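pls ignore typos typing on phone
pseudouridine-5'-monophosphate + seq
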Amino acid sequence: MVNFHVSPAVQQAIDAGQPVVALESALITHGFAYPANVDITRRMAAAIDGEGALPCVIGLWRGAITIGLSDAQVEALATDTTAIKVSVRDLSLAGVRGVHGGTTVAATALLAHRAGIRVFATGGIGGVHRGHPEDISADLPVLASTPLVVVCAGAKSILDLPRTLEYLETWGVPVLGWQTDEFPAFYSRVSGLKVDQRVADAAQVAEVFHAQRALALPQGVLVTVPVPAADEIPAADVEPLIAQAVAEADAQGVTGKAITPFLLARMVALSETRTKRANESLLINNARVAAQIARCF
Ligand code: PSU
Ligand code: MN
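k done
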């Protein structure tokens, strides 16, 4: 028995065709520490609200899939150190475990689509891991099989970015650049890699999404938005930290679902406040862009 709960406010907005933007909760349980995790979620929600859309945090509450976690539930997840990281594989196990869980991009996108939400804002997507091409985040196959718009700042170069883009190409996911030709690398606005199509505004994203639906394609659309220039960290500054974090993960034999949270935590520890500022800035910016796109539907 799967418990799938949609909050009344979210259900009403979906039924009325009002703009809704999904937010993930792995960011809350495994991305940021308390209280920064609650703070950033509130600020993303406020940015979405400010654009006239309804924010909808998705996660697991005592094993129940919850579309539209309340502020109190977000706070509880944010302080629960036993909350699990929930990707697609974990969804069917969660009810049995009955625990709180933070959903990854993969699980959030899947659940948002099931609930009838078409736009989802996050920071960085998972991908193919550096030095471990066999380790591919479930975020990628979900993007290839779930028709919704995912707004992100590209992917951190803790990942193998060329292989990540190759995967998306093979599986037919269009990668759009928000007012840019470059695939952004999370902290940095540039990566040396190109997107498939530059878009000028939300209307062009909606046009691509509608064309995909008209063609009955199974994929979603990945919209990549560069971090705001004022908060960008040049690749040359982050690269040594990433190299060190990846080397530490290899040396300690960190694998499976633990590796991404390990690398994220090491990046924060190694870089102090600069990466946190960039991370927060791009998340709020992505939330705003996602709300503009949702309003176009
Ligand atoms: N990358 C980031 N920040 C994150 C994540 C990835 O820069 O918070 C999180 C997201 O929830 C993403 C997940 O969906 O990690 C990917 O984990 P894995 O590589 O185990 O699929
Ligand atoms: Mn993995």
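The chain has a mean pLDDT of 96. The chain is about 50% helix and 15% strand. more later
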